[in-house]
Amino acid sequence: MGKRRKHYSKKALEKEISVLRELLEWIIYIIVVMILSFLAVTYVGQRTRVDGHSMETTLYDGDNLWVDKLSYRFRDPKRYEIVVFPFKYKENTYYIKRIIGLPGETVQVKDGYVYIDGEKSDEHYGNELMVDPGIAAVPITLGEDEYFVLGDNRNHSSDSRVGSVGIIKREDLMGRAWVRIWPLNRLGVIQHE
Asked: 122-155 pLDDT, tens per residue?
């Protein structure tokens, strides 16, 4: 009888160890998924939603985008790329605009057009002539890590022409808009040039 009881205890113990082992495996799996998710959102990409009309007719209110946070770790941002950056006066608020001026360039808005280093820009993203040049009414020379950004819907955009947004520093660029993931009828890679 004693042997039988011992055998039963060993079987129960093995079952308990098996349950604990499976529970531990699940806990490790959940921790690994959480760490990988954190790393992906922090360093690779992030979903964001367009709120407003400042980037029409390229991006629309309610569009959901995947932001590429990895590219700028290996290369500099390029002219006309659509970038995402935090609004410095409201937490958890991000702006989506198009890079127009690059580091070292002088940007000015005259007669509704953008001038780069004194030459009229050949860009065609603005929906209409800009009515208000804002702080860009006078030439603005960008520093070595500064970018001048505009919304495509120029007369309905808070961008580098407005003091509350101003010139964007490289370190503030969260990433570039890469793919529109919603709505499905406009799903696809975002064209920057």
From this structure: 887 777 889 999 999 999 999 999 999 999 999 9
Instruction: Tell me what pLDDT residue 35 has.
Output: 75
95 three-state secondary structure: strand
Residues marked as catalytic: 54, 97
- Proportion of the chain above pLDDT 90, given as a percent: 37
Span 50-189: which CATH code? Answer: 2.10.109.10
Could you give the 3-state DSSP secondary structure of residue 100? strand
Quote the pLDDT of residue 1: 47
Sign of the alpha-carbon dihedral angle for 64, 62, 182, 189:
negative
86: Cβ contacts below 8 Å, ≥ 6 apart: 93, 94, 95, 172, 174
Of 147, 166, 143, give the one whose Cα is nearest residue 78. Answer: 147
* DSSP at 70: S
**Residues 102, 43: Cα–Cα separation, whole Å:** 24
Question: For residue 17, how many other CB atoms are within 10 A of its CB?
Answer: 10
Task: State the sign of the Cα–Cα–Cα–Cα dihedral 176, 180, 181, 182.
Answer: positive
Q: Say what the pTM is.
A: 0.76
Q: How far apart are CA 43 and CA 23, in angstroms?
A: 30
Would you say residue 6 has pLDDT above 90? Answer: no
Q: What pLDDT is stored for residue 44 in this prediction?
A: 62
Domain coordinates in residue numbering, the chain: 1-45, 50-189
